[in-house]
Amino acid sequence: MPFPLPPYDWLRPLLFALDPEKAHELTIAALRRFGRLLPPPTPPTAAPVKVMGLNFPNRVGLAAGLDKNGVAVDGLAHFGFGFIEVGTVTPRPQPGNPKPRLFRLPEAKALINRMGFNNDGVAALVQQVRLRRYRGILGINLGKNATTPLEQAIDDYRSGLRSVWPVADYVTINISSPNTQQLRALQERAALAPLLAALREETERLQGQTGKRTPLVVKIAPDLDDEAIVAVAETLVAHAIDGVIATNTTVSRPNLAHLPAAAEAGGLSGAPLFARSTEVVRLLAHHLAGKIPIIAAGGILSGADAAAKLAAGATLVQLYTGLTYRGPQLVAEAIAATAAECSPPPQAVEQAK
After folding, report:
1. Roughly what angle, to the nearest 10 degrees, separates helices 274-288 and 303-312?
2. Does any domain span residue 1?
3. Of 13, 120, 199, 273, most Cβ neighbours within 10 A?
4. How far apart are CA 70 and CA 28, in angstroms?
5. Predicted local confidence at residue 353, as pLDDT
């Protein structure tokens, strides 16, 4: 079982007194050390499920972005996640966008970030995750370097895929961050189809060489209109993609004009994203019709929010911004709620006897 963690209620005011990015850095450093000191936990089992050929002990995971360089996996495992996703990582190290680039909106239980894929590069991440003691499911989220022209993005994703193949349980292709110029254009069918074709070809080649199968997942934006989401769904099915994450952050600012920080450029995450990201899950579920599993992310700040994502058609959920406001207790709450959502009602159990 995960090691008991200290109450977050007393820690949050201390972290919120700091610059958001500094608080993030201190948190990652603390979790890195914490993970080294304690033996790795066994994730709690609650409504386990097999998805993409992988056995998930519970349905609640960590979204990419919190641990970009894969340095704190062992510490994060003590939160109880059924799976952990690290990154976004790019082929070459890059500093990201100028600071400040991370902003809190406490009144809205939201964050705005324009980090810009700041990371130490894929080689450094692979080295870190090779050292992990955590043996649960690990996803690695790939992006392209900011200096790579859009027409060469396929090369960056293919390079990243080759690098992480030996250590990833699944790989996510991030084409939906709003903080890398033109990246979201890769979601358009004309660009998405050749990208996915190239990556599917690469996965088949790597599987043939290594005998290892690694599912391929695509992460999409909430800002696509419904017609574009349907086109994405059709393209994912056509190229036999293993899963889809819905959604990344949004560039819209729903009902936030009264908050000064809302004027900052970047992707908005947290509670204001919940409604739209859930609607995207519902739309995808309708058009995918069970052909591809959906991992829901966006605005989960309670167990009820997590359960609502499953009710909309998701199979798994991911947390990030909610952890900033709720801490590790959100993970346990979401695990319990998603397990309850997936359990048959008592009368159905009785009838089955």
Report:
1. 30
2. no
3. 273
4. 10
5. 38
Q: Residue 107: what residue type?
A: E
- pLDDT in the model for residue 49: 97
* Domain CATH code at residue 207: 3.20.20.70
> Active-site residues: which are they?
177
Residue 316's φ and ψ, nearest 5 degrees, are -130, 160
Let me know: does 318 contact 79? Beta carbons within 8 Å: no
* pLDDT less than 50: residues of the chain: 1, 346, 348-353
Question: What domain range is 126 assigned to?
Answer: 8-352
Identify whether the C-beta of residue 157 lies closer than 8 Å to the C-beta of residue 196.
no
**Mean of all residue pLDDT scores within the chain:** 94
pLDDT of residue 4: 59
Q: How many domains does the chain have?
A: 1
For 75-126, give the DSSP string. HHGGGT-SEEEEEEE-SS-B--SPSP-EEEEGGGTEEEE---S-BS-HHHHH
210: in domain: yes
Position 69 in a domain = yes
How far apart CA 257 and CA 201 sit, in angstroms, is 45
Residue 2 inside a domain? The answer is no
Contact call for residues 77 and 32 (beta carbons, < 8 A)? no
SS (H, E, C) 112-150: EECCCCCECCHHHHHHHHHCCCCCCEEEEEECCCCCCCH
Burial class (CB in 10 A: 0-12, 13-18, 19+), 233: buried
Pairing of strands 110-113, 267-270: antiparallel
pTM over 0.85: yes
Residue 244 pairs in a beta bridge with 218, 294
Spatial neighbors of 288 by CB under 8 A, at least 6 apart, are 233, 236, 237, 244, 294
Q: Are 146 and 94 in contact (CB under 8 A)?
A: yes
**Which residue type occupies 235?**
T
